[in-house]
Amino acid sequence: MLTLSSIAGLLTHPGTQAMLLLLLALALAALRRVRAASVFTGVALTWLWIASSPAFALWLQNGLALWPPKAADAYATADAIVVLGGGVLPDAVADSPDDEAAQTTRLGFGLQLYRAARAPVMLLSGGDQARHMARDLENQGVPARSLLLEDTSANTHENAANSAGILRQHGMETVLLVTTDIHMPRAAASFAHAGIRVIPAPTPDPGLASHAKWWPNRAALTLSARCLREHVGIWSYRWRGWTWTPEETAVHADRMATPSLRRA
Questions:
Q1: What are phi and psi of 206, to 5 degrees?
Q2: Residue 93: which of 106, 76, 75 has the closest Cα?
Q3: CA angle centred on 189, ends 186 and 191, rounded to 5°
Q4: Which residues make beta-bridge pairs with 198?
């Protein structure tokens, strides 16, 4: 079933945008407006090439990845670790909790933070994913009493609003928030807007360093699409009043556990 989120994802994907431009070019060609059709064809192909290039994708990613990933034991302690849905446990986690593979997924890094005693409780947020994550963690030895579930949310705004209610019920104010680096600005701003003090603990997105900067490839196109969706999401959340503007963020900085969050 199509939702507003899925439609937004399609429309912000460079591949979809290029296809729409090409369809417009075909329509113009059918109307014998050859010059205009050629212009739109050129724009479509150029945009698709740029969006598929690692240089452009990494430029977009760098604009969102405001907090560099760190080792779990380098983070301050908090009341709880909040892991947003969308992650699995790498196979290496069970045998080697300090393995670098653990930091590549949300759930894996959340488990690392817990094992590093950064917080005594993990809150798992994200619709039906929360229960799946809880089962995985219990299989790795995390006691059920250390897990809180938020399993009714369908987007980042609901992640934050619903989780904030659960955290307040348990007298918790400061959290280590675990999500991907490009999703962190919107997620951290949403939780801060909900009244939670946030310590961003991002997981890195797969790198593109092995690819030539301007040679198009699918991985770069996927990363560009995800970053563009995040930029649109940040704007949309501010427009809906789900996060603060930069000016409002500065006024409410007392809710932030880190000064760098003021840029979100």
A1: -55, 135
A2: 106
A3: 110
A4: 175
* Beta bridge partners of residue 176, listed in sequence order: 81, 199
Domains of the chain with bracketed CATH: 4-63+215-231 (no CATH), 68-204+242-263 (3.40.50.620)
Alpha-carbon distance 53 to 142, whole Å?
A: 42
Q: How many residues does the chain have?
A: 264
Confidence at residue 8, expressed as pLDDT on a 0 to 100 scale: 72
Burial 121-158 (b: 16+ CB within 10 A, else e): bbbbbbbebbebbbebbeebebeeeebbebbebebbbb
- Give the tokens for residue 216: 């198009």
Q: CA-CA-CA-CA torsion for 40, 46, 48, 53, nearest 10 degrees?
A: -170
Task: Tell me how far apart the alpha carbons of residues 112 and 94 are, in angstroms, rounded to a whole number.
Answer: 10
Closest C-alpha to 119, from 36, 159, 178, 165: 178
Integer distance in angstroms from the first to the last C-alpha of the chain? 31
pLDDT of residue 264: 45
Distance CA(228)–CA(51), nearest Å, equals 10
Looking up tokens 């598929």 gives: 52
CA dist 93 → 138, 142, 202 (Å): 13, 13, 17
Chain centroid to CA 54: 19
Give yes or no for a contact between 232 and 169, defined as CB atoms under 8 angstroms apart: no
What SS3 state is found at 178? strand
Residue 204's pLDDT band (boundaries 50, 70, 90)? Answer: confident
> Which residues are registered as beta bridge partners of 203?
180
Say what the pTM is.
0.86
Partners of 174 in the beta sheet?
Answer: 197
CB distance 198 to 257 below 8 Å = yes
